[in-house]
Hints:
By secondary structure, the chain is mainly α. It has helices spanning about 5-10, 20-30, 30-55, 60, 65-100, 105-145, 160-204.
Amino acid sequence: MDFNDIQNAWNNEKTENVVLPSNLEKIKAANTPLDRIRKNLKNEFIYQVLSIALVGFVPLMYNFPEKMTTLYYLLFSFYVAVCAYYLVKFYLFYKRLSSITLKTKDSLYETYFDIRLNMELYKTFGFALTPFLILYLIGFLYFEFSKILGFIAKDFTNYQLLSLFSIVVFSMLFMGIVLEWWVHKFYGKYAREIRKVLDELKEE
């Protein structure tokens, strides 16, 4: 193969992923928010595992009756199963982010959309835990109020039904607001910084 053949082969190579030197610094600038996301993911994974362990000790801390303890741990086993599914997803996401090297615009795009996808997955995780939060609150309040004489009656009173409805509504609103704030604070604002870099690259 002579020099002309080598030059023709070089010219025929695809160049979509070639990074211009002027763009390289902008792509590297996305590493800072990406590092923050990695750090937040790592910390949150640890806190989530610790909180699951803490929830498991609630019956011991409040001296639940034997029957109530059995019911509690039955519900807790479902709770752990849901948490384990999502935590594995987040761990795999963290591993992907840790192995990424941002050298091309394409890799930056892929990383950005992976982050956005996992932000929505995080919200789904929070809403999946909402029924458990509601049941825990109902069970805890029932346990506490059952100590009051005359509280447990054959029929539910209007006050008790209103309290039950209030717990459900409050839990849904609380989880919705907290999830939006949490995802924005720890992930959303850094994802927007990466998006800003992508928009700047698009304009050039």
